[in-house]
Design goal:
about 300 residues, mainly alpha, P1 Nuclease, three-stranded mixed sheet, 11 helices, 6 strands, nucleic acid binding, glycoprotein, endonuclease activity, endonuclease
Length: about 300
């Protein structure tokens, strides 16, 4: 790891620790929203206009979001894209603020992975309350209901966000082992270090902030362009499939084989993280990039079909 990359990585780690471990971090969710926006702009501009019209009825459009959307350096199209970005990150923005639309258990599902017993099951989960699959179905129903557009705008934010979260492998898995008999909370209890000289963080936070640390429009847009070009819509497997259950099972397989390295990845004890294998970052980063691109394209497919 060269000096510049290490410095950037330390900044990302600091941001993850400061903001908690929610899923892809906020900048990455913004990039997912941007990919979906660009996909719809190219393929379904009329459906895009309907989505934008609903999002403009969101309760935060004239408060929390107003300063960003008034940015005079942005074109009108970029402001529309920014609205998609802000919608995609909104469920994380309201975390812990006593907002009635905050639903912590909606962000994940705990499929059980117990490598010690040879168990990798997507038909059983550790119970946590309503999970990401149930939440996605609920908000899809709201979108096609007679609910007011202000309610549909909130449902859209959740669809944007959950389409991203379900593609983050550690949002679909709970590692159960002698070290974590009640599960590792999707890697949140799994302590690691990127290198011996780096601070300890958890595996979930590592995955959260792997791709982007800056939440500016330009940074998120640049990542979106890069990933959408590297992983085009045509490359998305089953790209017309809107089954979030299938997406979650794909992510669980990535968690098992790559994030946890088929049960061979070692967690630290106490507050001391175990150093990641030397090839770990180089192996998993392309997969994280792929998953972010897939989630944006698949989100666009859902929006085209539902609107």
């Amino acid at each position: 790891m060269n000096f510049s990359f290490k410095s950037a990585w330390l900044l990302v780690v600091a941001l993850c620790v400061a903001n908690g471990s929610f899923g892809w971090n906020k900048p990455t969710h913004m990039a997912i929203g941007a990919i979906a926006y660009r996909d719809m702009l190219a393929k379904s501009p009329r459906k895009l206009a309907r989505v934008l019209a609903i999002l403009r009825q969101h309760p935060d459009v004239n408060t929390r979001w107003a300063p960003m959307l008034r940015d005079s350096s942005l074109t009108e199209s970029e402001k529309n894209e920014y609205l998609f970005m802000l919608a995609a990150r909104w469920p994380d923005d309201i975390r812990g603020q006593k907002n009635p639309n905050d639903h912590p258990t909606w962000h994940f599902i705990n499929y059980v992975y117990n490598p010690t017993l040879g168990i990798a099951r997507t038909d059983t989960t550790l119970a946590t309350g309503e999970n990401i699959l149930q939440a996605f179905a609920l908000n899809r129903q709201l979108l096609t209901s007679n609910a007011p557009d202000s309610t549909k705008a909130i449902a859209l934010c959740w669809l944007f966000h959950l389409a991203g979260d379900v593609h983050m492998p550690l949002h679909t898995a709970a590692l159960v082992s002698p070290q974590f008999p009640d599960g590792d909370r999707g890697g949140n209890l799994f302590k690691i270090k990127v290198s011996m000289s780096n601070p300890t963080l958890n595996l979930h936070a590592f995955w959260d902030g792997m791709l982007l640390g800056s939440d500016t429009f330009r940074a998120a847009d640049q990542l979106a362009v890069q990933l959408a070009q590297a992983h085009t819509r045509r490359q998305v497997p089953h790209r017309c499939n809107r089954d979030i259950g299938k997406w979650s099972r794909e992510s669980f397989e990535l968690a098992r084989t790559l994030a946890y390295k088929q049960g061979t990845l070692i967690a630290g004890t106490g507050n001391d993280g175990a150093v990641l294998p030397p090839d770990y970052v180089a192996t998993v980063k392309p997969i994280a990039e792929q998953q972010v691109a897939f989630s944006g394209h698949r989100l666009a497919t859902v929006l085209r079909k539902e609107m």
